[in-house]
From TrEMBL, chains A, E:
It comes from Celerinatantimonas yamalensis. Belongs to the HupF/HypC family. Gene3D superfamilies: 2.30.30.140, 6.10.250.910. This is HypC/HybG/HupF family hydrogenase formation chaperone. Pfam families: HupF_HypC (PF01455). SUPFAM superfamilies: HupF/HypC-like.
UniProtKB/TrEMBL annotation, chains B, D:
It holds the Pfam family AIRS_C. The gene is hypE. Residues 39-155 form the PurM-like N-terminal domain. CDD domains: HypE. It comes from Celerinatantimonas yamalensis. NCBIfam families: hypE. PANTHER family: CARBAMOYL DEHYDRATASE HYPE, HYDROGENASE ISOENZYMES FORMATION PROTEIN HYPE. SUPFAM superfamilies: PurM C-terminal domain-like, PurM N-terminal domain-like. Residues 168-314 form the PurM-like C-terminal domain. This is Hydrogenase expression/formation protein HypE. Belongs to the HypE family.
UniProtKB/TrEMBL annotation, chains C, F:
Belongs to the HypD family. Signal peptide: none annotated. This is Hydrogenase maturation factor. The keyword Iron applies. The lineage of its organism: Bacteria, Pseudomonadati, Pseudomonadota, Gammaproteobacteria, Celerinatantimonadaceae. Keywords: Iron, Metal-binding. The gene is hypD.
Length: 98, 338, 376, 338, 98, 376
């Protein structure tokens, strides 16, 4: 349920402050900012920010720092785990990875 | 006021129809076949027969909404679509018919734009539009304009392309990004407002096919229109009794189409194309085919997406190595949102 | 694409699978016959599991139970029939997300109704309904407000705007439902077989991750609020397995880049302005669940399509042989339903789980039925 | 319930479409060209070329309401109409394409009836339907079913029929009663309730044309469809620059059509036919042509209705000897009542 | 204006007495008899009678006797007038008859 | 066909022409420059004159003036515009005879409106309106009740039936008009050039031949009520010429096989039940004529579309250069109108006389303009 997709705010017009254009890959779509606020905490435009889009609304601001941490942890883990992975490949479970 | 739109009078066989045919169709398509004004075009059969021993004939009706869209219009589409169905048989498109079903109220200016677009597309491909027909139906009995084109051409004697040639271990090649046409149309028709990067790939494919005529080892080709590449692969699998295995990570998709597919829960494999071929070729010829394709702007993103195997159906291998059957959807895909 | 591809990396997937496998190998109480049963609550998760083959990649002592979090799958037939009643009236333009178009009621689907002449249109955003209502002032425009908490704020803002604009020809047929009472109902069932839960990330984005904490405490089940990409989901599963190993049962938030502990307060306020809880709601396959559905607040009652059109309220007679309820509650697998792939197929679905590609049965049918289950 | 009518699924390129094509089209039209399932039919060009040096090609879209009527249906009409447009050029109809535009909600049983009727009509004429296309449009975007057929055939080497052959003093012949088709359709479409004697004349005309191939002096022929005999005479007059003079009292009209025309203030000359030819022949050959026509059931009411003269336009001589210009109506005729 | 056409009543059903079928040439149409009465003066069905039909109603009964008289008079006149006609033909007015 | 072919015989036509010519040769006051001017009142007669070439066959000291008896030709533009206003409303099905479909109002024709989406249907009989109303109970069905006395009884019976059936969704837009006040207006014009009149046979069938007697007396003009076949019309002309020769000016009835002296009493009763005279009515080209139009009686007022829909009442601005009025009153011939065949053609008519093939201008355009006027 509830398809939500990360998108970057690329255009905003202060005459219609509750609306902004976001990019999802190469697709561009107007979304409503009411649920996250037209401006950020410092009162600046949100252009450049990443948001989660659902049914034409920006629903949440993506937290870059949070994301970096998680990804860094996962990368670290994947380096550590390369042995395990190799083992799994050779040991031949019901599944494998190319 | 009432003279700048299509009315029943334009389809009644009376004076208004004669005028429309002369002013719009004959004017834009102008050629000696059409100018004769007989009930049938009379084509040089002896000359056709000198080019080969098989006449290719194909028909398609075009019913697209919107009728003018990013990357083309129904007129361009109607010429390209039928020309491409000839091209994929190895036949240079020679002659086309053009049959119009017009809804009462269609602006004559729109019709003129569309017919001019057909004429320009045909001219570019050196195709003659040799006979036609015009019908008018009441408001709400058609959707603005439907165009049927039927085409003929002579199959190049050196080619024997057909689904019966498909063999295990053949390479599966697509000539470029998937789903451009379907994505552009869905965006405009459903008012999705997904920007101007979604552009139909509608194009004449003969220039891409012609260099392939001389390459040995090509088994069959098909333009991946309605139903997308998925539908073509299923046709190949059913006709050949073999398996079509493709790699998800090898599928070329442009960024805008990918964005749309993520937003709406769609799969580019199921979206229509109007300028892409799926080619089945022997593994040995794959490199030559790719070289020939990539030498042409229409084929610059061509790549091998999979191989034919001795199983059955269509299988797709995902990013993590899991292979699954790819079902042919029973329905046209609808957006998934909530 | 950023934020998507980042969470689909093969090396991360490999590492996570290895970690999960290693841990599961030590949890000897789980085997192929008696697997660790994880319910993914959300249909979005169900879809991702099948799309990426996660069920095939995970060790066979982990099994997914496909939960009730697909709003289309739990839609009772009678509600569709009420929509049809409204949509067939003269001068009504009925708007719906594409998702609901093919769901069969007792009298056909919205797609069938359109075929018979009803003016039914697909929209992407509830805001589109405002534009259509403005463009058709002599018609009544009815928006089928369907979905969980994720979608509610968008509906709410739409009706708040309509009220500000004095738009009197826009209505909502409210089928918004809320997930926590339903999870409560499932988990309180003594026959349930759920060991752990993958929490619905986008619902949590609205209501907050903390909203799931009481569930964990009450039923002593681990729950991890999860994102929807393969790395997210495997990461969440690893977190669940870790809790099992540690014999903990708490709420954790894997999807912190999107989900805050307290959710989105503006969204919650909008919902509260426009919608309030109904005493009872029907769920397909699950029956009546108290406090699980929404209705318009008195202040917004003039937008209520049910009040304005008084549609026939249909009973939802479900096919007696259909096992939708059992599948939804993890008591049987789709292929064990006697109708699966026979009477019930995506082209002619008997149960709603066969309609949406997020429904467990449709996903099994599409990805699994003929699956050669071969790995490279 | 929803499985016995056409749905979007039948046009989406997916499984439902493949099934419809196999179960309805391929089943009824069954032939090796179609069974190959390629994007284009591959026809024996060498064999065609052995029959003559000119290939005739023609197209028509059929949009009739009602789709099933006294004397035929849209399927029969679609085969006859295109076959007749080949026949009037002196070409035996050989191959046809069939392209369908279906409205969501069309009962599959109705479609089956229509396709069976096309198949039966084609078989009777030994025509092969070699390639096709199916599109589905939404409810209210088409009127139940539209059919395009495009046909080819080889023009018999001994004939050189064409409007450029028309000469002053030629005889103008029609092969039977005027307006039967138009009257039958108007009666059923507008619910006029004018009884069951109004029956379309929809028929394959090649059997009537074939005996004419060997008669010298025939200048041109045309099936008098939309716009009736009046429209054809105007086409002849315009193309030849000569006058077409006809005698009102010589016009064959059956009793039911005449009754309807009196009731509604219509002129049978403007009503469509689907089984009648207008033939221009040298005066010397007129008797031979009439003999040949009258020997066939389709031509038993054939008669000369006028002569070509050196003036211009179309003139009609009334019962009392007054000759007047016959205008080609700008519009399709509407009933006059009040 | 007012197209009115002679038609013969060919079928009548006493269960729907205000309706009858009439023939106009070979065309058959149901008409309403309300304006002439379903039955004739003797209370008999009107089948066989000729009526004038306009917009789906029988508007008047055609008077056979009246018609015979007029036609007979005209025929008589046309016999007498054949000389005049011949004169006109020869004398060459602006018009002629075949 | 009996009763038609009987009155088309060439020998009778020959004889009648001979008689007429012989008599006219003796009436030396009439010559090609100053012909005997006979107004055929009815559009049906106009049509027959051109179809059979009667004007060409008659001696050139007889000239036809094409009268106002074509209900389409005298329809003011404003009335069409009111119909369009109603027809464009949601939920209206607008029914009309084919005749009125192409008549241009100031805002286009009914055909144009249908093209823009209005539900406008052609019918053959007013009774069809009852069936359509029954089949569409949620819509308002409006019948455009157009025509002279001939058509009024059919409209009247239709509304009487509707009333009996309690059908409340059927309405009539009443444009029924009555011919005698208009003939009065024409004949009282001091500029009029009418020597004799061919009386409208089918109107007389309803109102009775005697209804025309006062006109003859008042204006001292001969009038013969005529049938519509060539023999009928020539016979009537012969009767008129005879009256001229005898210096009589009375009503005579050539069409006695159809027309009774007192008309059809049932039809008159039906008309009287449903319709009554309006004080004033507009005629295209002729302006306002007192007591010349009908409206619903108070008893039937609930069927009145104008009362129910309150359509905009449009002024009928006619093209200042158009000569429709002069043509209708015999003061000029169609081809003398500056717009004839230039701005005003059957495909784009400026005036209503160019719309119906019974209109004088359309008839001239179709049959005469390019006429080679050759006889065999
Ligand atoms: S197969 Fe159909 S009926 Fe059975 S559980 Fe699934 S959806 Fe329900
Ligand atoms: S030509 Fe047109 S404008 Fe002139 S009088 Fe005739 S109808 Fe009127
Ligand atoms: Mg094709
Ligand atoms: Mg094609
Ligand atoms: Mg193709
Ligand atoms: Mg044609
Ligand atoms: Mg439309
Ligand atoms: Mg043709
Ligand atoms: Mg034709
Ligand atoms: Mg033809
Ligand atoms: Mg096709
Ligand atoms: Mg329809």
């Amino acid at each position: 349920m509830c398809i939500g997709i990360p998108a970057q705010i690329i255009q905003w017009d202060k005459c219609q402050p509750h609306l902004a254009n976001v990019a999802v890959g190469g697709a561009v779509r107007e979304v409503d900012l009411s649920l996250i606020g037209a401006l950020d905490e410092q009162g600046h435009s949100r252009v450049g920010q990443w948001v989660l889009v659902h049914v034409g609304f920006a629903m949440s601001i993506l937290d870059e720092q949070e994301a970096q941490q998680t990804l860094a942890a996962l990368q670290a883990m994947s380096e550590v785990e390369s042995d395990v992975a190799a083992f799994l490949k050779v040991g031949g479970g019901a599944h494998a990875l190319d | 006021m009432s003279n700048d739109v299509i009315t029943f009078a334009h389809g009644s066989g009376g004076r208004a129809m004669q005028q429309l045919i002369q002013d719009t169709l004959v004017r834009h398509f102008d050629n000696p076949f059409l100018r004769r004004g007989e009930d049938q075009a009379r084509l040089p059969l002896t000359q056709l027969a000198s080019q080969g021993s098989q006449l290719a004939m194909t028909t398609d009706s075009f019913v697209i909404d919107p009728i003018i869209f990013a990357g083309g219009d129904i007129g361009k589409l109607a010429v390209c679509g039928t020309a491409n169905d000839l091209a994929v048989g190895g036949a240079r498109p020679e002659y086309l018919t053009c049959s119009l079903i017009l809804e009462e109220g269609l602006p004559l200016a729109t019709l003129d734009t569309i017919i001019a677009s057909m004429a320009a597309t045909a001219q570019q491909a050196k195709i003659e539009i040799v006979t036609g027909d015009t019908k008018v139906v009441g408001h709400g009995c058609a959707d603005k304009i439907f165009i049927n084109t039927t085409g003929i051409g002579v199959i190049s004697p050196e080619v024997h392309w057909g689904m019966d040639q498909i063999a295990a271990d053949d390479a599966i090649i697509v000539t470029g990004n998937l789903g451009d046409h379907g994505a552009a149309i869905l965006n405009e028709r459903e008012n999705l407002g997904l920007g101007d990067q979604l552009v139909s790939d509608c194009a004449l494919l003969w220039p891409l096919v012609e260099p392939l005529l001389s390459i040995r080892g090509i088994h069959t080709l098909r333009d991946a229109t309605r139903g997308g590449v998925n539908a073509i692969l299923h046709e190949f699998a059913t006709a050949s009794g073999l398996g079509m295995q493709i790699n998800e990570h090898a599928l070329p998709v442009n960024d805008a189409v990918r964005g749309m597919c993520e937003l709406l829960g769609l799969d580019p494999l199921n979206l229509a194309n109007e300028g892409k071929l799926v080619i089945i070729t022997s593994a040995q010829s794959a490199a030559a085919v790719l070289n020939a394709l990539q030498a042409h702007p229409l084929g610059k993103d061509a790549r091998q997406i999979g191989t034919v195997n001795s199983q059955s159906g269509v299988q797709i291998c995902g990013a993590y190595g899991v292979t699954r059957h790819l079902d042919l959807p029973y329905f046209e895909p609808l957006p998934r949102i909530c | 694409m950023r934020w998507i591809d980042d969470y689909r990396g093969a090396s991360e997937v490999t590492a996570l699978l290895a970690q999960i496998s290693a841990k599961m190998a030590h949890l000897t109480q789980y085997n192929a016959q008696q697997p660790l049963r994880i319910m993914e609550v959300c249909g979005g998760h169900t879809h991702a599991i099948f799309r990426f083959g996660l069920d095939k990649l995970l060790p066979d002592n982990i099994e997914f139970i496909h939960g009730p979090g697909c709003p289309v799958c739990v839609l009772p037939m009678g509600r569709i029939d009420s929509c049809l009643d409204i949509a067939h009236r003269d001068d009504v333009i009925f708007l719906t997300f594409g998702d609901a178009m093919r769901v069969p009621g007792g009298h056909g689907s919205l797609l069938d109704a359109r075929r018979k002449g009803a003016d039914i249109r697909m929209i992407y955003s509830p805001l589109d309904a405002i534009k259509i209502a403005q463009d058709n002032l002599t018609k009544q425009v009815v928006f089928f407000a369907l979905g969980f908490e994720t979608t509610m704020p968008a509906s709410a803002i739409t009706f708040i705007r309509a009220k500000e604009m004095g738009l009197s020809n826009l209505f909502g047929f409210c089928q918004h439902i809320t997930i926590i009472p339903t999870l409560n109902a499932l988990l309180s069932d003594p026959n349930q077989k759920i060991d752990a839960l993958l929490g619905p990330g986008h619902v949590a984005m609205i209501i907050g991750a903390n909203a799931f904490t009481p569930l964990c405490q009450l039923y002593q089940r681990p729950l991890v609020v999860s994102g929807f990409e393969p790395v997210d989901m495997l990461h969440s599963i690893l977190m669940l397995v870790q809790q099992i190993q540690d014999q903990r049962a708490v709420m954790e938030n894997q999807y912190a880049r999107v989900v805050r502990a307290d959710g989105n307060p503006q969204a919650q306020a909008a919902i509260k302005t426009v919608f309030c809880l109904k005493a009872h709601s029907q769920w397909r396959g699950l029956g009546d669940i108290a406090d699980s559905g929404m209705q318009f607040t008195p202040e917004f009652a003039s937008f209520d399509a049910e009040r304005y059109f008084q549609p026939i309220q249909y009973d939802s007679h479900e096919q007696p042989q259909a096992c939708c309820a059992q599948v939804l509650t993890g008591r049987c697998k789709p292929q064990q339903c006697p109708l699966f792939a026979r009477q019930c197929t995506p082209q002619h679905p008997t149960g709603a789980l066969m309609v949406s590609s997020e429904g467990a049965c449709a996903a099994y049918y599409q990805y699994n039925q003929e699956c050669i289950c071969q790995t490279m």
